[in-house]
Amino acid sequence: xxxxxxxxxxxxxxxxxxxxxxxxxxxxxxxxxxxxxxxxxxxxxxxxxxxxxxxxxxxxxxxxxxxxxxxxxxxxxxxxxxxxxxxxxxxxxxxxxxxxxxxxxxxxxxxxxxxxxxxxxxxxxxxxxxxxxxxxxxxxxxxxxxxxxxxxxxxxxxxxxxxxxxxxxxxxxxxxxxxxxxxxxxxxxxxxxxxxxxxxxxxxxxxxxxxxxxxxxxxxxxxxxxxxxxxxxxxxxxxxxxxxxxxxxxxxxxxxxxxxxxxxxxxxxxxxxxxxxxxxxxxxxxxxxxxxxxxxxxxxxxxxxxxxxxxxxxxxxxxxxxxx
Length: 324
Ligand SMILES: [Zn+2]
Hints:
The structure is a single chain. By secondary structure, the protein is of the alpha/beta class. Helix content is about 35%, strand content about 25%. It has a seven-stranded mixed sheet. Strand 4, helix 3 and strand 5 (about 145-150) form a beta-alpha-beta unit. The longest helix has 28 residues, at about 90-115. The radius of gyration is 19 Å and the shape is globular. Bound molecules: zinc ion. Zinc ion (ZN) binds near residues 35, 40, 57 and 59.
């Protein structure tokens, strides 16, 4: 599962085993004490937005939610209706699928270009997507020649992905990668996942271990350096309970190099969207003022316009890096 907002690709987010712990967590338990990027221990209040306390690392500037939501809060957020496409009407669900597949193709083209510059090609590479949702990226990746595997937190979504793929390529699981042997993949995809993880540094160490030498990691995540973040400030749509960290160009690059990756390439996070998708998204994840205005737009606009594919760079970054 990953989370979705206007420019994000999908709605499937990966909590770090929120449902498996039963002890009550206090605000003190949930306070981040060490910055995952630079290991500093001093945070300053940044602002509170929609009830979400945002702090910044005084050393590297990373923005984070602090304290983090409890496991039970996250489990509630990631309910069965969290997925885009989980309970929409058939027409809208079809729109979501079109948009996700087109975005996956766009990201795979960029991945191919990154690999190509390093003398590698997709064919035969072992690809793992963590938080693969309904499997749209995996379907496109397989068409490009990758051997595909996925991990998905939601059993329902994993079943849909396996059905679409026609093979049992997706296992149900959290972001714990303990079951995977060292060096078992050549490519790892984390699309709209890392901002949901309680300890992204430990997680990337684990991804690094699981990747073979000369492997590539692709991360798509919201960016505080995006035009929408700069324009909207504390009203940025990516400030949400399930997003625990808010990276920018410098902090994501540093986190990757600190965890052993090299050759980091950063670019604006490109998404393919249709107006129908954007409106449907804001129906599902309402934003005051915007959602009703968009709903009105849907009732007025001709359907051909609503289904026009638009290539948009709105709130994220696409990051590629290599395990040497
Ligand atoms: Zn820091």
